[in-house]
Design brief:
Blueprint: H1 3-21, E1 44-46, E2 49-52, H2 56-82, H3 89-94, H4 98-114, E3 125-127, E4 145-148, E5 154-156, H5 167-173, E6 179-181, E7 187-190, E8 211-212, E9 217-218, H6 223-226, H7 229-242, H8 266-270, H9 274-278, H10 281-292, H11 302-307, E10 310-311, E11 314-315
Parallel strand pairs: 2-4, 4-7
Antiparallel strand pairs: 1-2, 3-5, 6-7, 8-9, 10-11
Length: 330
Amino acid sequence: MTPNLSLQLYLFLLHLTALATAPSPREPAATPQTSPTPQSWEIVKSGRYNILGCSDRDSYTLKYLLSSLHTFIQPAIDDADRAIINPSSAFTTFFHSPLIAANQVSKLLTDISTGRSAYPPSSAYMRGEEEDGFGTNPLKTGNPTFVCISEPGLNFGTGGDDPDFDGYDLCKDNPALVMDHFRGTQYINVCPQFFTIGIPPLPPKGHCLGVNRILNRFRGSGARLSHFQVWVLLEEIVGYYMGGTKGEGIKDFGYYEGRGEGVSHVNECVRLGVTQALRNEMSFVYYVASIYGQCTSFPDLSELKKRFRLSSSGPTLPESNSEIIYPIYP
């Protein structure tokens, strides 16, 4: 056989092989599926905390932040434990009265550190096409559970009285919303933008707010101190415990009963009364962040001590948001 004939035979056989393995025009090659794989709904554990519905990367991020929070929160627990005998400036700035607040602050932060359950196992969530839109709880526990809301039709929480409520719409319609605890449930919904809008994960050491001594108030709104992913987690976990429903309710845990105050501006947090501060998520965030940052500069609250006389049960402090401890300036 001549070399040219051998080459022609080889090319002919190669052509036949290509025809045999090519997909039929009527049966196009399969395209990748965009729906979550079953593996994405495996429960990821971080201590007693649960992570559900997140990608491997996002699960790793949440586990890293929870591990960091466990470390960051311990100095504040120690500070609260010492507060009755030797209160720090951070404690008296954000909670005023160690006699009233110290034990409750220590208890709530300790529960956060351990991930103690504040809810019975809940089935109040929706996922996909389950019957009536409701699934069952695969967790068998009421411990804090982070859920990545990554697509439409995926909802955790009851949605109130709106059967068409979709947590994804809440995330999409509120670009600044990165995480939200569904009050009355164990679920903390995590919006996609939590991982993408560039919030720094952890604060640097010594990161504190400045104080304007002329106006006797913190400079800025407080975002410079609180705008870190680890403190966003802390705020929503505090909300989880404030809304606890296990047993007789939140009093079982030694916390003040009632909904959160929802005050976020640091200078407004300082003006809250004791019981208001104990119901306000951001009061805990600013306190823990100040202790972690080893901050030493705070507004002078001596006027507060002059205006509200101490009694054996602690100071009588304002219970109204309109009550002013020191002058408010724009």
